[in-house]
């Protein structure tokens, strides 16, 4: 497989966000966890600020210690851990859950997501493929497999999988966003932007999809436009979180100041 180039390494952490969007849905981690987190907080985790996420981690951590085999609780806990960057801890939670539920598709898919977030791509592929049912494929698992392959440098196979997922679930924003990220990984930012815009316009697009569009635009040097998109959210707290996300992505190669100060053509 082709290795991920310099731009691909820069985008790699952003690609993990897209994997979360694609894989979480199939595991119902987003849906199940969002419901669970909503009971501890007033809104889904995608709209929480850093303080709310930290509180959610503490709340679910205490519950998890009392009953680590509670599947919905463990999925919720692993998801909020991942949202706060505690990938190793999230993986430990999911590994224990996979031992308790070795044949559960939902658990295996979430386990694959955690493995990928921790950089264990071969193991992640195995978990996602074991969770899939070839006779009745789940589009979310197909898209998740593509996202893992993208991060392993196999953009050609990944894009084939994304298009297969779109055949099953047309106009799904997480798949379109994954496809856009694939082109971003290979440096084709114009094509990436096109898919990202389609993803943002599709019903059900969430904050992560808009963040990735802002990233694609920011990498092209259109800093103000990127910041405007990143701030176009449901709340001031989430808007600021999006700006921090964009800054973190661009700062990996000191790109933030470079793009901000770039002369207009």
UniProtKB/TrEMBL annotation:
* Family annotation (InterPro entries): TMTC_O-mannosyltransferase, TPR-4, TPR-like_helical_dom_sf, TPR_rpt, UCP035836
Question: Gene3D superfamilies per the record?
Answer: Tetratricopeptide repeat domain
UniProt keywords (A-Z) are: Signal, TPR repeat
Per the record's keyword annotation, is Signal included, yes or no?
A: yes
Q: Where are the TPR repeats?
A: 139-172
The record's listing under SMART domains reads:
TPR
Q: Has keyword Signal?
A: yes
Position of the signal peptide: 1-23
Q: Name one GO molecular function term.
A: identical protein binding
What is the name listed in the Swiss-Prot or TrEMBL entry for this protein?
Answer: Pilus assembly protein TadD
Q: Which organism is it from?
A: Phyllobacterium salinisoli
